[in-house]
Amino acid sequence: MAKSELVARVVGSIGEIEASAWNALLACQSTPSPFMRHAYLLAMEASGSAVPESGWNPRFVTLWRGKTLLAACPLYLKPHSYGEYVFDWAWANAYREHGLAYYPKAVVAVPFTPVPGPRLLARDAASRSALAQALVAYCSQEELSSLHLLFCDDADIAACDEAGLMLRHTVQFHWLNQGWSDFDGFLASLSQEKRKKIRQERRKVREAGVEFRSARGTDIRPEDWDFFYRCYARTYREHGNPPYLTRAFFQAMADEMPQSWLLFVAERGGKPIASSLIALSGDGSPGAEPEVAYGRYWGALERVDCLHFEACYYQPLQWCIEHGVSRFEGGAQGEHKMARALMPTKTTSCHWLAHPAFADAVERFLEREGAGIEGYMDHLADRSPFRHA
Q: Which Pfam families does the record match to this protein (predicted)?
């Protein structure tokens, strides 16, 4: 084998890849994400959250030149489409109606985490393109129905487009900091209707006797993590589902990535009643301010009118303004977020289907859907909450 030859290797756990080598690749990306850190993905496995029993069979694809790791990505073989937030149930149904197996399929994603960011970690564009091609080759070799890369960044999209994958667009809602000095300054930028509504919602929470405290990193106490998990698990169970993530996952976050987390706790009469957990970008260096905050999880043990809005939007946005955070991403879906000044942002996933006829049909569908997304974005732009839209 020539020294310059690229070799693709697939391993069954990120634990088989050196953390320093993986994180060095992540540091090369233009938008490094805390959700792609070695510790985050390892915690998904080790905690029993993203494991074969829950339908996430890990396969980490790596690309090497000699002993040098040039590119890598997380890949999961899945017998269902839960926990992805890019919905392909109709595709699976069409396969079944024609007597074909859609599952297992291959998914390149961060499990249960609909946050845009790099998925193909690579030292350069050539290595990223080679990794995209290696993914298609692997799926063909394993006779999988399809390959899906979810919530990609621009570099991934370019590599996948070059490799012949189809692009699919969805909409999320993100808040951009325009340099406001305080929350009142932010409110002043909104239309009178939206400004009045937010003030009314915040007043309802205050008048209910609810106060908030926040803690970041190692200031989040073990009992705070325990309380948060009670809230998180209860919210899932109220919707008839077990929680995706285990308590052990959040313990790993507290132990391995503490500076990546910000917790808000709502208290009434000195008793905690609700909480929301926010993820933060950056490498966790002491004193470093994040550029991006990500709304992730929330839950409540008591019902208070407008408490969800306060815990998940107004408290985090106020914190972002005070700490100079440039962007707050509100998670998947949620047109109601525009009333809180989170604006529509297009996100992209990339797809490959092995069956030529189905690939042609999906491509035509994506063309129609894409046109609908563009129209939807235009419609939302006309409903801007800002005064001088």
A: FemAB_like
